[in-house]
What does this fold into?
Amino acid sequence: MIRILCLHLAENRASYRYRVEQFLPYWKEYGIDMQTIRITSKSYPEKLSIALRCGEYDYVWLQRKPLTPLFTAIIARKSRLIYDYDDALYAVESYLKGKPKPTQPGSKQSIRRLNAVLKRSSIIFAGSEALASYSRRFNPANTFIIPTAYTKLPEPPSKSGPEVTIGWIGNTGNLYFLSMIDQAAASIQSRFPNVRFSVMSGKAPEGLQTKWEFVNWSKETEAAWLDSIDIGIMPLEDDEWSRGKCAFKLLQYMAHGKPVVASRVGANIDAVICGKSGFLASSEAEWESAFESLVSNSEQRLRMGQESLKHFLATYEREQVQKRMATILHDHFRQCRKDK
It folds into this structure.
């Protein structure tokens, strides 16, 4: 049994829920025992105590948060370090105006800490090709692409009726990206009276031409909302921050059997089989064309939704992703024992 201690940010963070928590009930099936500790909100002595006890475990899994070079060095000496991340912490967030604070992605402190972690890691789980490419600059032999996973769901309910709902789900910071498709969405809304736009987030989008129906996000109502939409969307800027994203919104839509429309950026390109499970778009004209095609053809929506679900189950479903991680861990552990 491989023993792992996972140090993570917070239980309410999506990166923890989908890259750590959903796997916890199943690790023992793969010969792995994982314990978790929230590393944030701990005092310096508490963090030091945790770092010094890391030798009790075969691996320490650091989830997303790069620690100071000192703590990183202590952990790497005491145990084998796994670093798992799903955001371009080396880049400034697309929607941030001005210089990032020291704790924010893209700051000198964040980059210095991230690079130190990558250099000292025995295994790196990068959520996208862009993140893996960055990681390989510091640790090419031990970098693996592990997409964010989502749990298999019951068969999505069939929908009927003339109304078509285009949906977007995400945190309030990412509402920024809706402005990129505002003209296309507003045009569709004016041309097709049966189309509604729905957003599930912490607040409603502001300053847009498109009229978005706002649904307050909650863990309990998320699945029902995803079932209620007909088309899922993920607009992004083509910049360093967005290229590091892991297409998680798309996985949520795909797991619920929805056709998708997404910006032709980063991990979106792998998540969308363009013309088969949805459309990739690089301009407002392409977004409007994709919307029009799906809104006008219910059979195409159904067919593409089925392809979305099929692609999700083969590539991003929890069991598939966890099996890949377990294989990497056991292979690495066996090699370490041979090298002793």
